[in-house]
Amino acid sequence: MRIKAIVFDLDGILIFPDFSLFIKAREEIINYLTSLGIIIDDISSPFFKKVYDILHNEFGSNEIKIREIWIKISRIAERYEMQALRTAKILPKCRELFSFIKSLSLKIAIWTMSCRRYAREALKKLNIYDLVDILVSRDDFIRPKPYPDGLILICKKLNIKCDECIFIGDTELDIKAAKSAGVKPILYLRNDKKKQTLDCEVIEYLDVETLSRLISSP
Questions:
Q1: How far apart are CA 181 and CA 184, in angstroms?
Q2: Tens digit of pLDDT at every position of the chain (218 positions)
Q3: N or C: which end of the chain has fewer CB within 10 A?
Q4: Of the candidates 61, 136, 126, 74, the residue with the CA atom closest to the CA atom of residue 95
């Protein structure tokens, strides 16, 4: 099947923020939820999936209440995300990479569990905002990773089949989401990250040469 689109996770792939601030955000979210009588055991991943599932278990079909709380916790996280963005490092030559993708007439999408404002500013910091066709974020109010909803939504918006798409992520959640959606998963592990065994293709460099190989491989 010919590849028609590449979807990228954002944090840990294209931009590298201070993740300790994300941990502080989760701690504040837990305190807020506790004040509502909603208990979450820990801040480990998949954190937003845990929150999403607990809210639906707690409030059932009351989507208005669920959305109200989700927006509140998202705004809490957004404060820390925007703070982390100030000192975030970026992937070198990112515009060159994305320009290469566009030269092949491929679509580019971003799927992140961060907020839309943070994602937009990150893409501008990377100088690739104008090259991205679709951005799906936490603010789209879909089931979080490792649910596949973000990838399915992207493929629907791009009017392509899921097996015509590659998803490049750096966590087990990304790989599980891709497999559930029927999208080809690629695990990006930089030299400073431990090897993982997730039964998928692994890359250690994100450059034109690597992408050329991924796109052309069956």
A1: 9
A2: 689 999 999 999 999 999 999 999 999 999 999 999 999 988 998 999 999 999 999 999 899 999 999 999 999 999 999 999 999 999 999 999 999 999 999 999 999 999 999 999 999 999 999 999 999 999 999 999 999 999 999 999 999 999 999 999 999 999 999 999 999 999 998 755 555 556 889 999 999 999 999 888 76
A3: C
A4: 126
Name the pairing type of β-strands 89-90 and 15-16.
antiparallel
Q: Mapping DSSP to helix (H, G, I), strand (E, B) and coil, where does residue 23 land?
A: helix
Task: Clarify whether residues 198 and 106 are in a common domain.
Answer: yes
Q: Are residues 36 and 76 in the same domain?
A: yes
Residues 76 and 111 in one domain: no
| E strands, the chain, in order | 5-8, 15-16, 89-90, 107-111, 134-136, 165-169, 184-188, 201-203
**Separation CA 140–CA 130 (nearest Å):** 20
The answer to whether 3 touches 166, Cβ cutoff 8 Å, is yes
